[in-house]
Amino acid sequence: MNTLTAAQITDQETLASSACRKAAIRLIPLLAIAYFFNYLDRTNVGFASLTMNDDLGLTASQFGFAAGIFYVGYCLFEVPSNLALYRFGARRWLARIMITWGLFSASTALAQGPVSYSLIRLLAGIAEAGFFPGVIFFLSLWFPIQYRTRVMAWFLFAIPLSSVLGGPLSAAMLAMDGLWGYRGWQWLLVLQGLPACVLGVMCLKVLADKPADAKWLTMDERQALQSALDAEHESKGAHSFRESIKDSRVWLLAAILFSYIIGILGIGVWLPQILKTHALTTTQIGWVSAIPYLIASVAMLLWAKVLARKRRYVLHLAITCATGAAGFIFSVVYSDLIPALIGLTVALIGLSSVRTCFYSIPATFLSKQAAAGGIAFINAVGSLGGLVGPYAVGWLKDVTQSFNAGLIAMAAMLCIATALTLILRYMVKEA
């Protein structure tokens, strides 16, 4: 058996590092922009609702249900979609997802009432299923763990960024009301949906399924990076999807994600309506809503830098969930606009940083098909919180005539996520 010398090992590490830098520059901007529009598609309905609800005759409960039913289709097709990605390759499958979700997202502008609106959102969820876990799996095929956390943070940066830019952008599009006979919310949904189709076509040109397929890397870089990834994957436990769903850690992660999703999507969908209760105009809502997300974006990247160095993913997951809960409680106790905004900013700092911690965990014990199917399974079960969160906040608003009950409920779910994460600490080894 050949043993590499220290100099050869250093050369291999240097080549792998060079390959990772090139891959990050080529792959991450496109994927982050795609996720920017992906997440915008989930939350822009909150801005559309400022005028759309009256046009379509939607109550708060009906709007919350329609916003949440998106996740029924999304969750049902999540695992099949990711297994298809594993079979057909990320490049083609991610392109397919982007093109179909873009078309359905734009077609939401054709809704005529509660039923048609809910049906289109259901179909959009089916089309979009598999994108996020597919990208997380794709990153595990390209970046060894020592690079993956920071790369993932830059990809996930698209979430708060979509809300920083999405608020003012959505407000401007709502101001197009009456142009060519269409309502402002219709322009918003079309103009924010169709870019996904263009990005899908770009994926076919830019992405490569694995380092061995990347002609823009040198032969030595391809071999060094692939060797590092192969060594990492071989050191893990579960290698098949069937094995992964027997792992109690997978189910616990799904429960944590379910609790977390209720919080992040509850505020993501309803923040414009919450700000509207403070007598702000649509334009003011657009700009004010950007402030918490802007601060959260910077905090997320700083937190990821610490996480990449410490690699204590589970501990930091508990801290970020607890931070989100504390922020929501503060915004209820101090409900005037400025202190409430401070509380929501603290909540969003925690919520924005959760994903970097969370999605670094499965890849530490899942490999190959187990990672593709296991991550999709966790995301599918956990994302059911997307059905519960928006609907629960809307229902509580109808019952209590206030958003405070919804904010308290989201804080409670994040406390549950924190408690479950503390249990997970005893099941996942960390330094």
- The helix-strand sequence is HHHHHHHHHHHHHHHHHHH
Supply the CATH architecture.
Up-down Bundle
Q: Which percent range fits the helix content? A: over 70%
Strand content: under 5%
- Please tell me the total number of domains: 1
Number of helices: 19
Overall mean pLDDT stands at 86
CATH-derived topology? Growth Hormone, Chain: A
User: Which stretches of 5+ consecutive residues score pLDDT under 50?
Assistant: none
CATH homologous superfamily descriptor: MFS general substrate transporter like domains
- Find the structural class using helix and strand composition: mainly alpha
CA radius of gyration: 21 Å
Compute the number of strand runs.
Answer: 0
Shape: globular
For the record, the CATH class is Mainly Alpha
User: How many strands, what sense, and barrel or not for the largest sheet?
Assistant: none
Distance between the termini: 32 Å
Task: Please describe what this structure looks like.
The chain is mainly alpha-helical and about 425 residues long. The protein has a single domain (about 10-425), classed as Up-down Bundle (Growth Hormone, Chain: A). The protein is built from 19 helices and no strands. The model has no long low-confidence stretch (mean pLDDT about 85). The two termini are about 30 Å apart. Helix 1 packs parallel to helix 7. It is globular and about 70 Å long. Helix content is about 80%, strand content about 0%.
